[in-house]
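Hi all, long-time lurker, first post. I run a small reading group and we've been trying to get comfortable going from sequence to structure in the token notation. Rather than ask abstract questions, I figured I'd post a concrete chain and ask someone more experienced to write out its structure so we can walk through it together at our next meeting. Sequence below, copied exactly:
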Amino acid sequence: MAIWQQLPDLEKLNLRGRNTAVENLGIVITEAGDDYLKGTMPVDHRTVQPLGLLHGGASVLFAESLGSIAANYCVDRNKAYCVGMEINANHLRSVKSGVVTGIARPLHLGATTQVWEIKIYNQVEKLVCVSRLTVAVVKKTEGPVKQENLL
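-- Answer (accepted) --
Happy to help. Here is the structure in token form:
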């Protein structure tokens, strides 16, 4: 059964990432399945730490991007939006080059919170990082967040 309130439009999602950390790190959303969102991120000068390995912070940014984007498509976006509350990550293996692929799947889709598991794999499909993201489901108001900027 599909989890989406509205099916993610990959072209629009990738355009929305322009001039953000998502674009700066080369993150591309590549696929939306019935219960997951998938994307890629290059391992290059933008995403490595001084030793030349994929930076843990870049992995976390990738994971939170996938989970947050997916979360926002699981709510009625006329009434609510989702924002990150907490994220953790376990870095399991290093990556020196190429592309990593992340897959976000929900563990809990509640009325006020969601919990997402994001797994990041290297090019030979070995697990690099596993992350868990908790997001708040916030009712839309006329408050400080620019409503037109929301997914």
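A couple of things your group might point at:
The longest helix spans residues 56-72.
The chain has three helices and six strands.
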